[in-house]
Amino acid sequence: MKITAVLGSPRIDSNSTKLAEAALRALEADKPEIKKFILNDLKIKGCQGCYSCKGKTETCAYADDIFRVLASAADCDMLILSGPIYIGDVISQLKAFIDRCFSWLKPNYLNQPQPSRLSSGKKLLFIVTQGNPDPDCYSGVLKTYQSFFERLGFTVNLFVASGLAPGALEFNDHLLKEVAEMAMSW
Prior knowledge:
Layout: E1 2-7, H1 15-27, E2 33-38, H2 66-75, E3 78-86, E4 89-90, H3 92-100, E5 122-129, H4 139-151, E6 154-161, H5 173-184
Parallel strand pairs: 1-2, 1-3, 3-5, 5-6
Antiparallel strand pairs: 3-4
């Protein structure tokens, strides 16, 4: 199995990164091939809206550091995305990656029964942390991302850890167990 982990938090020891690492540790028994990317360490831009991927090329035409992340994610069996909610949405580093996934949609994707260029059967574990204690506070935003990735052909499991201050996982071992169980449930 090939796993691509895309870590969106700018903090090395963040709650979202620790949860992603717990999921990866749980999956190690199957000896997967794991590629991990820390978005904050990369030089990336958001989608440029050039639509090259809908005509001239079949991949994103903008060749910055996200190009290899997209290639790895397109080739994987399981994608793990993790990051915090900042100001009502996923952190900008993760949002830039998500926007660049637009290149995976075929030309005229709105009228296609199979709009994705990706092979079917991919899994996505989407790990989100937030300071707000209400786990449903940002459910509308997260539902939008879930729908987008489902349209790309992913089966999506969403893991939301709410009410977390920085470093709070040290006191919430049950969340590490829960995310590990979710990762192994497939």
